[in-house]
Amino acid sequence: MAHILFCSRMYNDAHDVLKQLVSLNKSNNDSNVKVFPSDIFDALWLTRNVCVPGYGVFDALFSVLVEVGLLEEARECFMRMIRFRVRPKTRSCNFLLHGLAKAGEGELVKKCFVDMIGAGIEPSVYTYNIMIGYMCNEGDLKAARSLFARMKEMGIIPDVITYNSLIDGHGKLGELDDMLCIYEEMQAAGCSPDVVTYNTLINCFCKFEKMPRAFEFLREMKQRYLKPNVVTYSTFIDAFCKEGMLPQAIKFFVDMRRVGLSPNEFTYTSLIDANCKLGNLDDALKLVKEMLEAAVKLNVVTYTVLLDGLCEEGKIKEAEEVFMVMQKDGVVPNQKSYTALVHGYIKAKRMVDAIHVLTQMSENKIKRDLLLYGTIVWGLCNQGKFEDVEVLLDEMRAHGRELSHVIYTTLIDAYFKAGKATEAQKLLNEMQEKGVAPTIVTYCSLIDGLCGLGCVDEAIDHFHNMQSTGLQPNVVAYTALVDGLCKNKRVEAAQELFLEMLDKGMLPDKIAYTSLVDGNLKQGNVQEALDLVKRMIETGVELDLHTYTSLISGLSRNGQVQQARDFLDEMIVKGVHPDEVVYCCLIRKYHELGNVEEANFLQTEMMKRGLVTVASECSAQNVQTGQGEDVAEYTAMMEGVQGVHVPATAFKCLEVITISHAPYIAEQCVDNHPMYMEYDNLTSGSTIIWRKDSNPVECTALSLSFCR
Q: Which regions are annotated as PPR repeats (predicted)?
């Protein structure tokens, strides 16, 4: 039948008959009636002399097999035709090459092309376009350029599609100069750029943050009377969004609709993502509503950026609702969708739910990448669940997943923060043994962790090791070491590092400045500390609560009480709210100087701010002066202040101290180390012991703060 129809030049009917025969193989599961393409080929070959000999029917079968997606069978048909000396048409071969390229069958694409040339089938410009386009998409520009040269040698003139593929290939790899050379060659050859050419150029320059050049091509595009389309506008909108330039993106969005272009899902997704990242969730949801009203469906990327935005803002309930709607709409969550939800659960400290999401992923056969594992590890570490971390790491290894430098760094940082220096060091050794090179972030975690534990010399060793590997210390590394040296009373060494930072053109942050200010004041270097404060202000680094606390406490300790008081007034004017630590050191100093009036004034101010710890300082002064009976009167006065409540535990502490002068002090309280500098240590639950050589006023104040 196929032969007769073909000989009668009823090509469409012959095509339909062959398609029906091939479809029997695809649709019918009954093996008794299956018709295999090879059988069809054999039948056609045996009946080839039914009418006037012709071989076009074999090419028709070849084309049908590609059309229905039976690429392997089509390739077999192609090879049989070559073997039986029935030459396929170039057009049919192009059809197969395109199908294989689209299916990602790279090796078969190359082999078919070689077989095609070997069989004497002349490639056309479309053949080369398919091959060059595929090579460019794969990033094999050497092969693409070789094919480009060969086609020109054969006298085949490249068209706009050829040039567009090469421009896109070079652009994707950031080879912008080569991309422009192709563009210039294109024009020199008399091939006019089209909208796709300009969109490709604009996209590449936007991608590599060269917006001015992208605008040049937009102007050139308009000069050639080529109208920017949805892709053009969406590319600029996405680039503006990624740069955080939302107003400019919205301007393009408005202009796009003004010229009659309808935004697509990519356009909306870019704007939704930008709004979510800026915390403008209401605006993001308005865009979602507008998108639905315009009958533009939300895709998996849109849903994912919305999930990410909601989770980032702590709106986990709303994120769960979006996740449910997403699945009801038939949109299958991908790895990034699940990762966003996991991140949200971790932020909400709902680790059980986060682990449940991992189970869902396994059930839905969604692979977990290192980013997701890293997120879970980070969450477990933050909650101190190191045993669960070990279980997760074992699971990773069981699935053949090696720990990345990000996960190693997260673990090292967490172990140091938990005071587990030995475990952190073991991880570093394991990391290096497995050939995972520590990054600058890893070294910063090591230096900061060791300094926090007082192991400054070890931190310095890692600081030097980092440089020996070719990594240059950044502001974080320098700051951690400066802080560690200052806390270790090695202020001169810290100052040398600080100057080294400046010499390298780095801008120290407020932590580095505050550490040096505090360190100098503890060494009695008042002028050096004040000079640092002056430099801070001149370089635009704002003083925060920690800086003012160091200044006020240090100046008070060095007898500069008026200057300390001036800084208190300054911080209030600047909107930096003093805490009980700031007030207590000034109150204590005024008591030492016998200026009870000023001390009482600050106590009153402190109470007005609702800072209950004032009871500690005042009660301590009463204990020192033997006025224990005033404690009850003072606490009653505190209860009378609006908004101030003295807890029962505070009364109990006051009672004990008043009656027995109970000698309680936190273990960290050492000689000449005032209460305000150990405040954070006290809140961590330290053992309380008696120190006979400690200042009774200071110790009592510490006791009360600790009891509170």
A: 89-123, 124-158, 159-193, 194-228, 229-263, 264-298, 299-333, 334-368, 369-403, 404-438, 439-473, 474-508, 509-543, 544-578, 579-613
